[in-house]
Amino acid sequence: MIHRRRRRPRVEQLETRRMLAYDISNLGQDAILGDMKGDWLVYGVDEDDQGETDLNGDGDVDDRVLHVHQLSTGTTTNLSLARTNARVSVVDDLVVFLVDERDQASSDLNGDGDTSDDVLHVYDAISGQVTNTGIESGNNRFKLVGDLIALLVDEYDQGGVDLNGDGDTDD
């Protein structure tokens, strides 16, 4: 005999109500979803699909620029930073993401003398402050847990600096 547990419709109804706690709205932007957790929706907007508007002030219109939307207030913030195609991570009120130096006016964001890195940035949604960590962390090698960020860094990509004290720069 096979016994199957019946689903409780009440649980589904509660989930539906919870999902409908916010009004549905059109943000008016052609976007690619990055992450959504709690009160925050994080997404990239393609400049060329947004009326060829330079959203990060670098003089071109071929970047994907990161935006953060607070669901409870309906407020959207343009971070004016070109994000990579890498993942975006949201925990509580922190957003962690990579910025491609090439797409940010070829700026050396980590001070290693080149403009070919993906540099880790943190946005504090409560204070509105963006922090450039100055650390290259390409290939999605970071994890946000609470208010801690763990990441892997290639010494070569961080300007050829011996970060672990073993006398070489190839780790």
Low-confidence stretches: 1-20
Number of strands: 10
Mean pLDDT: 79
Q: Secondary-structure element sequence?
A: HEEEEEEEEEE
Based on secondary structure, the structural category is: mainly beta
Count, helices: 1
List the helices and strands and how they pair.
Blueprint: H1 9-19, E1 31-37, E2 40-46, E3 64-70, E4 75-82, E5 89-91, E6 94-100, E7 118-124, E8 129-136, E9 142-145, E10 148-151
Antiparallel strand pairs: 1-2, 2-3, 3-4, 5-6, 6-7, 7-8, 9-10
Walk me through what this model shows.
The chain is mainly beta and 171 residues long. The relative contact order is 0.12. Mean pLDDT is 79; it is low at 1-20. It is globular and about 55 Å long. The protein contains 1 helix and 10 strands, in the order αββββββββββ. It has a 4-stranded antiparallel β-sheet, with no helix packed on it.
Write a brief caption for the model.
The protein is mainly beta and 171 residues long.
Characteristics of this structure?
mainly beta; 171 residues; 1 helix; single chain; globular; four-stranded antiparallel β-sheet; disordered N terminus
